[in-house]
Amino acid sequence: MTSTVTAPDAGQHEGTARRRSTSVRGTLGVLAVATIVAATVPFVLPESQQAVAIRVLIFALMATGWNLMSGYGGMFSFGNAAYFGVGAYADVVLLVGHGVSPWIGMVVGALLAALLAVGTGYVAFRYKVRGAYFALATFAIAEMLRLLATDTTWVNGTIGYHVPLLQEESWWMFQFEANAPEYFWIGLALVVVAFLAVLFYLRSKAGRYTVAIRDDEDAAAALGIAVMRYKLTTMALAAAITSVAGAFYAQYYLFVDPDIVLGQAQSIQAIVPAVVGGVGTLWGPIIGAVIVGPLSTVTASVLRTPPDALSFLAGRSGLDVVLYAVLVIVIVLALPKGLYGTIRQFVIDRWRSR
Question: 3-class DSSP state for residue 164?
Fold first, then answer.
């Protein structure tokens, strides 16, 4: 009797594990191919467009971090600029003030951002702050850091930091010639590492518990899942990924100040690619970044040299931003699950209808 009951359960468990393993291998295969193809971008993209490719990578990192926290963790954040700024400032303060390698600064920034996320999350969850109130709390933390950095001479206040230029290229000091392909390859490697970190985290027990908590926190707590622990772990990893984007930004653009790296524009730029690509999906943030990254450049170019039918728009200040916003809104309304999420759902529905 016992053997007939346990055997099907064991077989079902093995089948589920096998499907998960196959899914991971398939994802890794697609990632490998995509990475190889993407690595050729510096050779085919005009030098004048290299900055756009770097922007795509920064957006992808930021959106991946936000998507882990808000898409998979269900903790909607409107203040990821705080973690981005911590990463950027940790990098430049250690480099400019103490001559520390940006790679070390990147690790330090990730740890500081993770600690900030854990502190913010602990206070919020301790006092049952959820939903829109949690989003407002994260917004307040980011604004508080921006104002603090603005009024603090220790981080040069509103002056910010200029990263000094070196006489020669250096991998250790993370500095190369302008538009050098090394910047793109390093950014691509960081995106791949972030993707893998999220992938294996979600496949772990902690990741599965995180999704369960997102779906029904009360039921998860009733089953004995340590809700606070897994929420904070998810926030820490998401913040670390976002801070790496900030450090990479600082090393590429060689300048930071409070309004640039701690302003709400950074929080928005973390959210939009994930929403456009598909919230709660692995590939959504990356696909969204590929779409959103060049979008502002394309709209600015169209309005700089518009077609004859739109010639009256030429030279109109600010219209590129308006057009960019309208295009994003149209994409979100037309594809509420995001581009990847919509395509994925369409394929699943077609497969089930067979």
Answer: coil
Length of the chain, please? 354
In the chain, % of residues over pLDDT 70? 86
Label the pairing between strands 161-162 and 255-256. antiparallel
Angle between helices 227-253 and 181-203 (to 10 degrees): 180
Question: Would you call 167 helix, strand, or coil by DSSP?
Answer: coil
**Quick one: how far is CA 145 from the chain centroid?**
20
Tell me the C-alpha distance between 183 and 64, whole Å: 19
CA distances 51 to 128, 246, 252, 294, 331, Å, are 42, 16, 9, 10, 24
Q: Which is higher by pLDDT, 284 or 321?
A: 284
Q: Could you identify the residue written with the tokens 């897994």? A: 230
Report the alpha-carbon distance of residue 209 to residue 18 in Å, rounded.
20
The structure tokens 């779906």 sit at: 215
Q: What pLDDT shows up at residue 328?
A: 78
What tens digit of pLDDT does each residue of 263-272 get?
998 999 999 9
E strand segments, 55-189 = 161-162
> Which residues make beta-bridge pairs with 255?
162
Task: Say if residues 342 and 335 touch (Cβ distance below 8 Å).
Answer: yes
To which residue do tokens 């994409």 refer?
Answer: 331
Task: Determine the Cα–Cα distance for residues 88 and 109; give it in Å rounded to an integer.
Answer: 7
The tokens describing 46, both together, are 């005009």
Determine phi and psi for 161, rounding to 5 degrees: -130, 135
Instruction: At 345, list the tokens.
Output: 């759902």
User: Residue 120: how many CB atoms within 10 A of its CB?
Assistant: 24
Kindly state the average pLDDT of the residues 276-304. 86
162 phi, psi to nearest 5 deg: -105, 125
* Token pair belonging to 141: 């933390």
DSSP-based three-state secondary structure for 104: helix
Place of tokens 């040299």: 305
Write down the mean pLDDT value for the chain.
88
Cα-to-chain-centroid distance, residue 32: 20
Tokens 């496949």 belong to residue: 203
Confidence category of residue 6, pLDDT binned at 50, 70, 90 = very low
| 28 vs 26: CA distance, rounded Å | 5
